[in-house]
């Protein structure tokens, strides 16, 4: 049997996307989770990963202040020790330097809660509402040095409904994130870079 693709998942918070990725990597999946890593030692997702039997580690970014390079040097230690083939950012809320990204060129993925190239960065749902958009969604893309701008590996759309707030829209998009990211990871682990386009919810 061929070796499984080793997947490390980086989180900052609750880790609901991480849970869906881990749960998707069942016995017949080409990949397996080898590490869940957080920049916040108190991230709720770390306990969820432990409960799923995945090794966890954390490197608190706060003592490093504005020194992103030093933080990333510390972050690299547990990450490289896990020998990942693929790194999935799943609600990881630190911007990574080009040097860090380059180490994982072509094998680092991110999920973003908008239909990129619309709304890179933060507050995506409020921005979609403010613009009067009829639909919103999420994107999985390859991570490159430019924020939220790498090649798109998958997208899923949801309608914006009358009376939506950023919270209700965010919940609807998150439901699609939970379907999209596992679908993209499976295809990526199979060596197929064709974008996954999920039908509208
Ligand atoms: C998700 O909506 C993800 O798309 C977003 O953070 C949330 C994390 O939720 N990521 C970003 O905004 C990245 N810039 P989770 O911790 O429950 O997976």
From TrEMBL:
It is an enzyme of class 2 (transferase). Pathway: Purine metabolism; IMP biosynthesis via de novo pathway; N(2)-formyl-N(1)-(5-phospho-D-ribosyl)glycinamide from N(1)-(5-phospho-D-ribosyl)glycinamide (10-formyl THF route): step 1/1. It catalyses: N(1)-(5-phospho-beta-D-ribosyl)glycinamide + (6R)-10-formyltetrahydrofolate = N(2)-formyl-N(1)-(5-phospho-beta-D-ribosyl)glycinamide + (6S)-5,6,7,8-tetrahydrofolate + H(+). Its EC number is 2.1.2.2. The record marks 148 as: Raises pKa of active site His. Residues 6-185 form the Formyl transferase N-terminal domain. N(1)-(5-phospho-beta-D-ribosyl)glycinamide binds at residues 15-17. InterPro entries: Formyl_transf_N (IPR002376), Formyl_transf_N_sf (IPR036477), GART (IPR004607), GART_AS (IPR001555). CDD domains: FMT_core_GART (cd08645). The keyword Transferase applies. Pfam families: Formyl_trans_N. Gene3D superfamilies: Formyl transferase, N-terminal domain. One of its GO terms (molecular function) is phosphoribosylglycinamide formyltransferase activity. (6R)-10-formyltetrahydrofolate binds at residues 68, 110. The active site is at 112 (proton donor). Catalyzes the transfer of a formyl group from 10-formyltetrahydrofolate to 5-phospho-ribosyl-glycinamide (GAR), producing 5-phospho-ribosyl-N-formylglycinamide (FGAR) and tetrahydrofolate. Belongs to the GART family. This is Phosphoribosylglycinamide formyltransferase.
């Amino acid at each position: 049997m061929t070796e499984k693709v080793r997947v490390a998942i980086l989180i900052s918070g609750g880790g609901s996307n991480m849970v869906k990725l881990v749960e998707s990597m069942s016995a017949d999946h080409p990949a397996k989770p080898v590490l869940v890593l957080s920049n916040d030692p108190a991230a709720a997702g770390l306990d969820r990963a432990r409960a799923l039997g995945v090794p966890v580690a954390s490197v608190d970014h706060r003592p490093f202040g504005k020194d992103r390079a030093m933080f990333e040097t510390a972050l690299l230690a547990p990450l490289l020790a896990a020998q990942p083939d693929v790194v999935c950012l799943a609600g990881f809320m630190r911007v990574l330097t080009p040097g860090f990204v380059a180490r994982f060129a072509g094998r680092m993925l991110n999920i973003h809660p908008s239909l990129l190239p619309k709304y890179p960065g933060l507050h995506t749902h409020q921005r979609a509402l403010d613009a009067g958009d009829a639909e919103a969604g999420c994107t999985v893309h390859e991570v490159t040095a430019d924020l939220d701008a790498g090649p798109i590996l998958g997208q899923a759309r949801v309608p914006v409904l009358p009376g939506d707030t950023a919270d209700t829209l965010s919940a609807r998009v998150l439901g699609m994130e939970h379907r999209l990211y596992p679908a993209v990871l499976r295809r990526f682990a199979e060596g197929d870079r064709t974008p996954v386009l999920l039908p509208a919810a």
